[in-house]
From TrEMBL:
Transmembrane spans: none
Signal peptide range in chain numbering: none
SUPFAM superfamilies on file: PLP-binding barrel
CDD domains linked: PLPDE_III_Yggs_like
InterPro entries cross-referenced by the UniProt entry: Ala_racemase_N, PLP-binding_barrel, PyrdxlP_homeostasis
Required cofactor names: pyridoxal 5'-phosphate
Chain positions with N6-(pyridoxal phosphate)lysine modification: 37
Domain of life: Bacteria
Functional description taken from the UniProt entry: Pyridoxal 5'-phosphate (PLP)-binding protein, which is involved in PLP homeostasis.
Protein name: Pyridoxal phosphate homeostasis protein
Length: 236
């Protein structure tokens, strides 16, 4: 098992390096976030032994169990799934980053519920960049005003934007969606110059994402292999 994951990590790192080189960017400018949803704590531990340190989770209860099981390790945990407002407290208490803030109420609750003595919670505003019906993420037109308000909350630190563009195999369309998110960040940065994060790119499109400026790529399948269907017990 270990050899498989080490081969996959190596291959993903090679893709990131090649894309950085192609784009004239330094390798340090892109963070690999290993998306460990549905993977066991033991699988995450193997990935840590291979050098990975940043993990992304979508399902709260599953994530809390893993964070607890791996509390002997120095890891950075990112929440990347849809958020119900009654689930914000454990997210504020146990995570370092949240990529999926798409409305003010969620940002306000995370800010209020971030425990005293912890650094502000890093957050990204999730944008529905492809303007898909019934998709998570705020409307791109609303992003600048929402970003401004989120940036004023004391318990969170707005870092940038996140998107999951419409699925497509067409490289031109992949590039267009990522470029749209980058341009939106550039526009918002005229008012909020500290924003430094573009969370975009998954296993199938990490190269165009990096070429368009991704600073965090969220990679699951390419690191851990295909996911089994989510077991019913992890629904929360
Ligand atoms: C599952 C997931 C990923 C990883 O997807 P892969 O295609 O397995 O790399 C990235 N981002 C989000 C928000 C996800 O839910």
């Amino acid at each position: 098992m270990n050899s498989h994951i080490s081969d996959r990590i190596q291959s993903v790192n090679q893709q990131i390096e090649a894309a950085c080189e192609q784009a004239g960017r330094s390798r340090d400018s892109v963070q690999l976030l290993a998306v460990s949803k549905t993977r066991s704590a033991d699988e995450v531990r193997s990935a840590v032994e291979q050098g990975l340190t940043h993990f992304g989770e979508n399902y709260l209860q599953e994530a809390l169990d893993k964070i607890e099981a791996l509390s002997d390790l120095e890891l950075e945990w990112h929440f990347i799934g849809p958020i119900q407002s009654n689930k914000t407290r454990p997210i504020a208490e146990h995570f370092d980053w949240v990529h999926s803030v798409d409305r003010l109420k969620i940002g306000q609750r995370l800010s209020e519920q971030r425990p005293d003595g912890m650094a502000p919670l890093n957050i990204c505003l999730q944008v529905n960049i492809s303007r898909e019906e019934s998709k998570s993420g705020c409307d791109p037109d609303e992003a600048p005003a929402l970003a401004k308000t989120l940036s004023e909350l004391p318990g969170v630190r707005l870092r940038g934007l996140m998107a999951i563009p419409a699925a497509t195999d067409d490289p031109a369309e992949q590039h267009r969606a990522f470029a749209d998110l980058r341009q939106l960040l550039e526009q918002i940065r005229t008012e909020l110059p500290d924003l430094d994060t573009l969370s975009m790119g998954m296993s199938g499109d990490l190269i165009p994402a990096i070429e368009e400026g991704a600073t965090i790529v969220r990679i699951g399948t390419a690191l851990f292999g295909p996911r089994a269907p989510k077991p019913a017990t992890t629904i929360d």
